[in-house]
Predict the structure.
Amino acid sequence: MATMVTSTKKVTDKGIGSGGKFPGPNGKKPGGNGWHGGDHSKPKFSPASYRITMWVILAAVVMMFAALSGVYIFSSGEQRRPVAMPRMFFVSTLLILVSSGTYKRAKRSLERDRLRAHKRWLLVTLALGLTFVASQLIGWRELANAGVYFAGHPRSSFFYFATALHGMHLLGGIGLVLYILLRSLRPVWPLQFEKNLTWTGIVGLYWHTMDGIWLWLFGLLLILR
Amino acid sequence: MSVESHEGVHRHPAPTGFIRKYIFSVDHKVIGIQYIMLALAAVAVGMTMSLLMRLNLSWPGTHWPILETLFPTGAPGGVMTPEFYLSLVTMHGTIMVFFVLTTAPQGGFGNYFLPIQIGAEDMAFPVLNMLSFWVTLVGFIVILLAIFVEGNQSIGEWFSGLGPSFAGGSGTVGPIGGWTGYAPLSALGKVAGPGQGAGMNLWVISIAIFCVGSLLGALNFITTLLNMRTKGMSLMRMPLTCWAWFTTAVLALLSFPVLLGGGILLLLDRIAGTSFFIPSGLYVSGLLSGSNPNFPLHTGGSPILWQHLFWFFGHPEVYIAILPGMGATSHILATFARKPVFGYRAMVFAIFAIGLLGFFVWGHHMFISGMSPYSAIAFSVLTLSIGVPSAVKTFNWLGTLWGARIRFTTAMLFALGFVSLFVAGGITGLILGQSSLDLAMHDTYIVTAHFHLVMGVASIFGMFAALYFWFPKMFGRFMNETIGKIHFWLTFVGVYTIFVPMHIMGIVGMPRRYSSFAEYRFLDSLHPLVVLVSVAAVITIFAQILFYFNVFWSIFKGKKASDNPWEATTLEWTTATPPPHDNFAGVLPVVYHGPYEFAVPGAPNDYVMQTDVGADVPSGDGHNGHKH
């Protein structure tokens, strides 16, 4: 036995007039918060919940990289040898910057309903992402050849650790791009189109943030030796 | 299309099989109860450990046959070794802080009641919610594993096969390092002594797993609260509990990643030969770093860095523990005082202010780390400023109680106990927050007393209050009030008898974390006090058997409860008892009023529920305070 309101108490209206004033969902226009309060006949897709969640995830990721950057900045300088930035990491930077651009093209193509272009740009982004990861691995080899190893002074460990952690996050991003690519292969219903758009939006947020984090790490490692 | 309609929405049919219904459930209510059960199991382990510590402190050298049977190497002849005691300190702290004070208030009650109180049918991402519990449970199993790995010779030897840093079987009940796991001790591996091998590895891994579980939970809480409030549930109409859970989720979201990052670095120091937290030229156990294959060369790390990372998480963590208790206390005080929460809006801002300031005060845990006195002053001033929002909350609680005809239920007693303990424990925060005083007192029992009262016992009282209050909604039956009141008085008097004398011990100069004070003649006169504390601890711990009995007996045999037995106003009391699978049986409620419309002038009853239509309430924004 469950009803909407189980209070059986009668409350009389005193007639002063302000009672029962109803401001709409959270003071906004109906449907303003993306939630289908009360309307149960048709479950509705809520893009907002996906967007909020992605922002929240990114806040956590940024906090982690901020803390680790702190480790790098404040790790003591004693007994360290300056580590030269591997040349391949410059190529990485270029790759990831371009991949952000191609992702943007993919998103814009979807918004303009140009699905072939959308898929094409997604594939290009995916390829650039994988090349980025490959370039990072080549960069590691450069480091090792220069005598910079993972086990050793924190400053040299950090080169590997930061790139590995960022690379793992980027692999997650590659998985997400792959996911929306697979989504785009399915037939498109109107509701699904909205979902694809939402997914493309939040994966874009993630991708560009990974781009930004790389630029930050690259700058940090380049300037602060 | 039919497939699509289930995606991204929280519609899932009520499960029928036992496993889907009670074990791998995606229902936030079941997950909430699972978290509470996890906390009940963890708190039993943590309490047993404190019992053992008290026995050792007050009756040192006594032969405890049971200890000899259980831990032949940790307590040879039934007498605890100092290492055994230190591992008890570590595991007690870790289990209590992570698996009790973080799981029950947020994962438990927050999970169960946040969606109902905002009028949602479930969390935004139910599967993620299930995952967050199971990940947390894995973390708990891993930390329990540390007990066996260190305590049992043969399991420990098996673990040694995993690598040089995995040596176990040192006869303790886990690692030695405190719940803070300070480097470099925690970063070196078995060369640093007993408990530094496999146990410490498992400790770091367990904490990292716990971080992941908490992060999954936090993002679900935030999305749910921001996006799934029902019609009319504006932010300022939310119960204060929801504000507290939301702020707690934000704190968890921003602080756990820092601990996770730090934990990974610590693990790498231990197993991969890095030196993030290990300084150059370290000399440990008679060995110089780099002079021995068991102790490879380390250069350039900083142990203080670990303290920064740990406490950047650690201080918000104490608010993660106590904010939900504050929310529950506000909620329960208003209900049983039959008055609106005094200064609702100020309460919301105070919660936020406490959460925000909590990120800028971590340095007060590190005054004795050799930090610059100028930083210490900054941390000190910021720390003391938390007294302002804390006082706002305290005075608003008193304002809520002022002139009220209080209904003294067990839940209300525990909520009042929360206020008392929060003030009693918080007041020493003003003393310890000043770096000059903290330098002298930091490693004494006054710190133990301070944090146990304010973030340990007060949070637990908040959870007791919450459980006695919401139990009828969760299980359809009341907990026994007579047993509840006996439980309250024994616990309330008990915890004060335990922790007030500890303040005195601290001021006299008794160092914390020591297993024995036999060498310190100047502390001899304190021994009667030590015994008093232990006797009180034994009584208080055994009083909790009443509580456990009450919980499990009442689930099956308690007095049946109606839908709104406490005559409360918020949404959880508008639905059936216990709530149906989708919380509101298909029709989401519509909210017209603030959360605490008690003592409404002119209304036939003394309260107006949030869903009542047409009642004459001045504006229903919760903050409007009725003229009294």
